[in-house]
Amino acid sequence: MDKKDFKDMDLSAYFIGPKGENADLFKELTEKLINEHIGYRQNFNSDDENSISESEKITPEFNNAVVNMKETLDELSRKMRGGSIPWTTAGRYLAQMDNETLMPAILAYNFAILWNGNGVAWAGSPASTLMEEEVGQDLAKLNGYKKNGWGYVATDGSIANVSALWMARNVASIPFAVKEVCPELVEGKTEWELQNMSVKDSLDLLDATGEKKNDVKARSARSGQNLQKLGKWLVPSTMHYSWQKALDITGVGEDNLIVLPVDDHYRVDTDKLESIIQENVDKHIPILGVVAVVGSTEEGAVDHVDKFLKIRDKFRKQGVDFAIHVDAAYGGYGRTVYIDENGEFMPYDQLEDAFKKYGIFTENNQFLKKDVYNAYKAIGDTDSVTIDPHKMGYVPYDAGGLAIADTRMKDTLTYYAPYAFQEGVAVPASIGQFTLEGSKAAGSAAAVWTVNRMIPLNISGYGRLVARTLFAARRFADLFDGQKFEVKGKTIVSHVVYEPDYNMIDWVYKEEGNDSLKSMNDLTQALFEYTSSSKGGDLYNLDLLTSDSNFSPETYGDAPVKFIESLGIDGSEYHTEGKMEILRASMMSPWIYDDKSFNYWAPRITKALQGKFELISEHENIL
């Protein structure tokens, strides 16, 4: 087969479209796939009798059931049309990490579930299990885990995070289990040395146990032994709430959570990270692992993964080691912008030419930051990554993802059920014995597999799609930063909290001359309420949708203070009020990707905002 030239394929063909522009194509392909499925049913042992006769289909009872089905589906349609978020709009949805999903992903998902595949094992879904194995390799290679990497389609990012900690816990406990089962392999090692073995050394040790490997795994952390010897799990204050669940579920415990402070750009303060690790090491408290966030859920911030690795290298000289996990559930697909068609991470000085070739960032490479580039590049030297196709992969839920650098990590998790998979029984592919999930829809793996072969995980495919959203985020950040609205003699000014690392922007609204944080919080909160169903009316009739959040001292420390003071507000008010309200927009729309499209939407969004402030002035006593 000739090599496809993906850069010459119009990404717009892969979406149904905000106004259903590709509806006929969607219907055509849906009908084709359904017909092929029905044909399969009809031709399987074609001599078998029909189970539903023509005479049965004309009975009153059959007709009653048909009428009931149609009426119920009509009711479903009414409920969905009246109560769903209009996230498919090209430009008016400036809110959560949701947007239009890819047409081929929808088709593949719906087609796959017609076959009722259970994605847990080969016996239940041989086709999709093979697909999931291929997708796992795709995700591993995307993150730089080329030689020994492995991955799978997790139910969501929370499950992937739990699984990553589960693996890290079990791997770190291997040396203690070996000491119990094969003590000769760790003879002479102190407990501190056992607590500070690298992931690779622990897995090598497990391999060395030979026929006693299962006995060692049985005495690992899964037995409940030695959990308190494994140490601390360090996570940024920008963490997803799933990490607290993970610590609870795995038995590592929330008491072993250390929350890492962030700087005024909402990235981990790496100097403080190093100090925190050193403080624990000085007390002879081991570090189980450290999490870097790439694309935080509130800010889209990208931690300095490269600096995390340098810190680990520094501590290795002290005989201290720990796992590094990257929570890139949201931001992981950003790596595709830097990957060439051969799967290699491109040198920084070649990016501008590559972008011109592929028609992204067409003006120049102004939207790239060297430190963000360095962070993405460093992911390949970490131990594991959470990355969700159902976010920036534009695949329907539930399609999270987990990739690991060393495929042997998954072997510390294995549990076997005789009816699904048996140890030592060879099958072409197997996933479920290594994962937290049991039964799961085959549609998710099929959907991700399909789009990965149409939109490659490199600059020619997803790189072009992700770049659209980076363009939109930075253009709207420029629009909102300093934008002014005149309402009844008062001037309202918007301020972007920080320059985006990814496609998330956070901003606030402040009345000019009113230097009260409470007033700014009230105004920002009011704008959210009038751009949501809270006070904005029917969802379907809203001309603008946003989401909100807040930064509090409990979570963010003093990170917002510098920004607050830059607006002329006393920084002490942050602690008095206990929060800074923000508006938050994940700019995932694939339809604002050049000057023409931005110049179409910018005045419409500005007009919608003006209208909201006029409503606030009329109905709220805050202006």
TrEMBL record:
PANTHER family: PTHR42735, PYRIDOXAL PHOSPHATE-DEPENDENT DECARBOXYLASE FAMILY PROTEIN. This is Pyridoxal phosphate-dependent decarboxylase family protein. Residues 472-612 form the L-tyrosine decarboxylase C-terminal domain. The keyword Transport does not apply. Transmembrane segments: none annotated. Keywords: Lyase, Pyridoxal phosphate. Coiled coil: none annotated. Its cofactor is pyridoxal 5'-phosphate. The keyword Iron-sulfur does not apply.
